[in-house]
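Hi support team,

I'm opening this ticket because the web form for multi-chain structure prediction keeps timing out on my end. I have pasted the exact lines I submitted so you can reproduce it. The total is 375 residues across two entries, so I didn't expect it to be a heavy job. Is there a limit I'm missing, or should I split the entries? Thanks in advance, R.K.
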Amino acid sequence: MKHFFKALNATVAATALAASTVLSSGVAIAATQGTLGATSTGSADISVTKATVAQITGLSDMAIASYILGDGNQALFTTACVYTSTVGGSYTVKATGSGAASAFTVANGPTTIPYTVVWNSGGVGALGTTGAALITNVTSATLTNAATDSATCAGTTPGPTAQLNVNFLGTLLDAAPAGTYTGTVTLLITPV
Amino acid sequence: MLALSFLRFLLIPVFTHVATLLVSVVLAVCMCVGNAFAADAVRITNLSNVTVSTWIIGDPTVIRTVLVCIYHQDLRTYGVTATGNGPGFFLNNAANQLAYSVTWNDGGVSNPGGGTTSPMTSGVKLTVRNNARITTDLPAASTNCNGGASPTAQLTITLTNTNLDAARDGTFTGILTLLLSIT
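Hello R.K., no limit was hit. The queue was backed up. Here is the completed structure from your submission:
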């Protein structure tokens, strides 16, 4: 009897990157010194640059513990805390996979299984499996709802602000040889 | 002839009086000039700009000090007025403002930050500050802390992390003007 089921263990590790933008502080004029007199006046320029920053934290690794032939499509996800210092919590996200040419694939030796990535930026309490379909190494359109009052999403409305969804087609999993497949998806958040 | 002699008799005292007046005027002017040379004088120098190139949310409160040279010709005391370009001590980025605070410490040459720390209000003079350089301090006649003279006071600028957290991203700038006066 031919066995058609196979065990498959697919894992996707998520890594996070953040980007910041430091605005130019311009050219400062030298402080002025006072001259000798009944009064004397000097001045100093004061300049402070608050950098525009973003941070993504709270990502978890995702795994299909054991896939058996016929189990069908597999949907994995991890929530994330995306923080930006921008007004309105706007940002872009760029995901890259660990496959050839940054492809979204998990691999077991030379064998790979592709997956797709969907980014949900619904904000606290409004996360889900829908959202922006990401293309590897392509920056998304501007997204919103990042936390703006706490870099760890522990502010006035605490909680994760985005969700990374990783989807495997059952047909591709069925076609893959049994084994453990692993990969990494890297996320770059840029404040906008 | 008699009339001419009479006229000269009348005019001589007048000329003498005018001459006396001229002398008086000249003397008065000289005395004024003399007083100008003796006028009290102050000088503030050694100021430097304060630049915080990058502040990121979560960073601590920013405290920056500037050591200042205060010279007062004959007396250790002086008055100082700090004025921001707010009104008040504010930095600006377009329509956005960022408040800061200013303190003054008149510790003197050996320890410019070790004296009395006084919070400043924009446009309000702090009177009777102490420990200014005077003419006889060594190096003698240094009015601007050159020649090895040391600063005599400490200006402290504080931007709280609370205010920075709440501020919009961007570069905030302002000018702090210090007016030094005799009293």
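A quick check on our side: The radius of gyration of chain B is 27 Å. Let us know if the file doesn't open in your viewer.
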